[in-house]
Design a protein that fits this description.
The chain contains ten helices and ten strands. With about 280 residues, it is of the alpha/beta class. Helix 4 crosses helix 5.
Amino acid sequence: MQPLASGRWLVSVLVVSLMIAAACVYATVCLLFYEGGWQIIFHPSRAVTVTPASAKIPFEDVQFDYTETGRAQLSGWWIPAEAHAPYANCTILLLHDGFGSLSDSLERIRALHAIGTNVLVFDYRGFGRSVPAHPSEQGMNQDADAAWNYLTDMRNLPHGSIIFYGEGLGAAVAVSAALRHTDASALVIEDAGPTALERFSTDARTKLLPVHWLTSDRFDPAAALEHLKRPKLFVERGNDARTEALYRTAEFPKRLVRVDPNGAGNYAEAMRAFLDDVIQK
């Protein structure tokens, strides 16, 4: 009696089946990254554990970016400068890193308040008390625009009195915002850190994935800085090679200040000198 199938045919079927199974597994892994890869870049917290009141700094809870149903999507703090502060006519729009919540910006708020500026800091969607959402670069850019509109439309601040200030991932958001809002006075970039693709490359789970096609997040302001002619201050804390590299490629006018990561160092002095140049008193 002749066999129903030859051994070669069975091997071929087995190989094809294994290839199909491997392709399905790979497609599933790609889908999982597409849905959850944001967690490699962002580490949001919904907790707001401390406020400027902890540092005895007056502040106001603010909500903005209202939907058609009247729901505020973004939550933040307005920290006014003291009445006779040297830069009371200047407002820092602080764009924090993709970690924690605005509570983690308290030390930066304290330093800027001591210098004598107004500060608006807020949580992106998915952070703190802002609406729940998966963070993304596009969403953060939209939130930065909403914060700008809040300052210019709701508080009626002159456009030229506003400075974008980005930390970590917020540095790329600040650069992007400065490109869209060309009448802002200046830009501060602090500890820009690695790009999104660089962050993915250090994660073993992404080694074999086509991450370029699976995410639109880049957080790479290098190309934009080559053409951005707004005054720029780069703040490098410790040994942050990324910030210094961005400084080298950026268009003039620009400044670089290196600050001791364990202390204030010359940060306040550099900020005051920068503000003296870009803000009309």
